[in-house]
Amino acid sequence: MKTIDLRSDTVTLPSPAMREAMYRAELGDDVFGEDPTVNRLQEMAAERMGKEAALFVASGTMGNLVALLTHCGRGDGAIMGNLSHTFLNEAGGSAALGGVYLLAVPNQPDGTIDPAVIERVIPVEDIHHPRVRLICLENTHNYCNGAPLTAQYTAEVAALARRHGMALHLDGARIFNAAIALGVEARELAAPVDSVMFCLSKGLSCPVGSLLCGSAEFIERARRMRKMVGGGMRQAGVLAAAGIVALEQMVDRLEEDHENARILAQGIAEIPGLGLDPKTVRTNIVFFDFLDRRMTVEQFIAALQKEGVLILALGPNRLRAVTHYGIERADIERALQVMRRVMTA
Ligand SMILES: Cc1ncc(COP(=O)(O)O)c(C=O)c1O
């Protein structure tokens, strides 16, 4: 029986074309800038994001960390959503390693932060106040139902940042999901920001890797920060080769994941004891509430697992299922059947 692993799109395995490309990759020492495959991936990434340059990093967490360390010095502040991945799930790296003070403001259910709220928390220039150098947004917004942020909203926040002499960084771990959902090019979503990180190892199915993109000058400084945090990899082309295949072959198919997520959401909404508004599902992330009183959420997860369906608990009675490469329409039907059976048993 196939395990239907809906816990995250990070569980994806590389495609046969990726494995082949990894095997054949031309390699060199990337710390010397001499790995032709890494260099090619970086050029492709910069082009896809509409930026001058890009830097291959080990993970999304490293990409965001390097971005924060490059934009901010010790004691500087960065404003971000209270539900953002960087604030909640990156081990406080920028504070621990860079002395960067994180100012968390409420995310709205659609993943945005009200610009008026951002405006209110920016301190006036005064010796008493920390210097706030950076605003961070997340697109799609993982914990806000994978909501895509529009280019228009991002431009509004970018204008606000500029008015205050601040930079804007985008955690675009799933920016291609956002682009597909909104029917625009990813570079349009990245155009207003100073730096953007996107992941290869989520919906794009690579085993490892993310790209940090920005101006040539920013990326040059980021390269030093990457080295400092131990992210200077040597023959990294063996990993970058999969990234090239991902950008060429795996972006357009994300629509399939979104379609599967819509079908899953519709099905879950019809199961008594599970709470979900299908309108909230715009990309590949499906959050829903466990409302049943006859069993605990842990028992529900265990019962699904026994039948080969894996989902994740993220918060009290809050569950997440994510669609991705390797999950077919038939798997969604089976996952729904199992959920229905468990809930009506
Ligand atoms: C929105 C977002 N940003 C960043 C990351 C971090 O990526 P990684 O797991 O590669 O460090 C994740 C991981 O799930 C994420 O969902």
List the helices and strands and how they pair.
Elements: E1 4-5, H1 16-24, H2 36-49, E2 53-57, H3 60-71, E3 77-81, H4 85-89, H5 93-98, E4 101-105, H6 115-121, E5 132-138, H7 151-163, E6 167-171, H8 175-182, H9 186-190, E7 195-199, E8 210-214, H10 216-228, H11 237-249, H12 254-269, E9 274-275, E10 285-290, H13 297-306, E11 309-310, E12 312-313, E13 318-322, H14 329-344
Parallel strand pairs: 1-11, 3-4, 3-5, 5-6, 6-7
Antiparallel strand pairs: 2-8, 7-8, 9-10, 10-13, 12-13
Physical arrangement of strands within the biggest beta sheet: 2-8-7-6-5-3-4
CATH class annotation of the largest domain: Alpha Beta
The proportion of residues in beta strands is 15-25%
**Largest sheet composition:** 7 strands, mixed
Mean pLDDT, as a whole number? 97
Helix content bin: 40-55%
Total helices: the number is: 14
Order of helices and strands: EHHEHEHHEHEHEHHEEHHHEEHEEEH
**SSE-based structural type:** alpha/beta
Query: What is the CATH T-level topology of the largest domain?
Result: Aspartate Aminotransferase, domain 2
Low-confidence runs (pLDDT<50, min 5 residues)?
Answer: none
| Number of structural units classed as domains | 2
Instruction: Label the CATH architecture of the largest domain.
Output: 3-Layer(aba) Sandwich
CATH superfamily of the largest domain: Type I PLP-dependent aspartate aminotransferase-like (Major domain)
What ligand species are in this complex?
pyridoxal-5'-phosphate
Please tell me how large the radius of gyration is. 20 Å
